[in-house]
């Protein structure tokens, strides 16, 4: 049994060495959580691309039945990304786009033992590097019930239980002055949104390209010939966009899952490339709406918020195929690392439970 345990340790150590050279932020240790005091740790993350993940593993070592912790992961701007309540452990990867200091805070539940030993591991990986960032020229929300109103700078989305869109977000990006030469075979162009609220976990959000762009301002006058001459009819934004509202489902290219505090990403490489090749002063407009019936969401717009949460389009160089393969390999290593940690922990727990009370107990950290 001892030899077997040492072999697992060597394999785990090899995994740590594999992950270390390309890690922007990496931590691995055990700490004690006393009483009900909150214990927080900060991790410096440099997000070089939208395909960036933070990896978090935590677990209570040798927990009693009633032992549990509350854990909160918070972004550099103070936004809660994910929380675990009453958990004995978790192994996860979370897609992020902010750079800076992330915090992970632990609080012992009232039913737990006086002192808990927590195994903690944190890492970060990015695939590709950002070459250009574009912020929206226009952000707005249109409402079915109030077609004469347009809410600028906000993105509030809602779809009724029967599937009818009640409110839809619109974003416009302009690429004037951007050279076509920035796009290469290995360039990926991503549009991303920060999710302030989603009515359910993994809420489906879809985007659709808007043909013909937006009409400004929110109301406009349209002349029409009638038998009595020319009359003028006033159209409001929802009515002006009615053709798109009715036909957007046929233009949806992607639907992605969103959750409160998270980020949702869409690959729009083909759309942007086509626009830049076809126009001298290219711009592109998308609608974003809830794809799930009876769902609602609030996304960060472009006012009264930190720019790190604005809707954004990023041009990213994905690098050589071999570099992408190495990046994906790190994700596999992280999953293996979590499995090995749990195997070693369970083995030590089983061994300790069979020892006599007078025999010193070997902990996981003794083995490591």
TrEMBL record:
Keywords: Signal. Pfam families: EMP24_GP25L. Residues 1-25 form the signal peptide. Residues 38-124 form the GOLD domain. PROSITE patterns: GOLD (PS50866). This is GOLD domain-containing protein.
């Amino acid at each position: 049994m001892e030899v077997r345990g040492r072999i697992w340790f060597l394999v785990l150590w090899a995994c740590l060495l594999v992950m270390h050279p390309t890690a922007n932020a990496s931590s691995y240790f055990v700490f004690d959580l006393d009483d009900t005091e909150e214990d927080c740790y900060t991790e410096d993350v440099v997000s070089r691309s939208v395909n960036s993940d933070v990896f978090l593993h935590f677990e209570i070592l040798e927990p009693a039945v009633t032992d549990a912790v509350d854990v909160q992961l918070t972004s550099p701007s103070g936004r809660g990304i994910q929380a675990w309540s009453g958990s004995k452990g978790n192994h996860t990867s979370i897609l992020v786009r902010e750079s800076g200091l992330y915090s992970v805070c632990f609080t012992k539940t009232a039913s737990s033992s006086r002192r808990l030993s927590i195994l903690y591991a944190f890492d970060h990986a990015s695939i590709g590097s950002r070459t250009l960032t574009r912020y929206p020229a226009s952000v707005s929300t249109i409402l079915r019930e109030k077609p004469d109103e347009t809410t600028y700078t906000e993105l509030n989305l809602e779809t009724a239980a029967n599937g009818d869109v009640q409110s839809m977000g619109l974003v416009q990006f302009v690429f004037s002055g951007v050279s076509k030469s920035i796009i290469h075979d290995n360039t990926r162009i991503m549009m991303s949104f920060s999710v302030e609220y989603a009515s359910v976990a993994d809420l489906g959000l879809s985007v659709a390209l808007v043909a013909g762009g937006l009409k400004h301002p929110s109301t406009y006058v349209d002349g029409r010939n009638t038998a009595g001459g020319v009359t003028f009819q006033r159209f409001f934004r929802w009515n002006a966009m009615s053709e798109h509202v009715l036909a957007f489902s046929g233009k949806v290219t992607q639907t992605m899952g969103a959750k409160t505090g998270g980020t949702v990403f869409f690959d729009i490489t083909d759309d942007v490339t086509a626009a830049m090749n076809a126009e001298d002063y290219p711009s592109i407009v998308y609608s974003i709406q809830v794809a799930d019936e009876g769902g609602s969401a609030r996304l960060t717009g472009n006012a009264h918020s930190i720019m790190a949460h604005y809707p954004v389009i990023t041009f990213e160089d994905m690098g050589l195929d071999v570099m992408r393969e190495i990046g994906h390999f790190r994700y596999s290593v992280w999953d293996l690392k979590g499995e090995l940690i749990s195997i070693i922990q369970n083995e030590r727990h089983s061994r300790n439970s069979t020892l006599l009370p007078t025999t010193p107990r070997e902990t996981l950290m003794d083995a490591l």
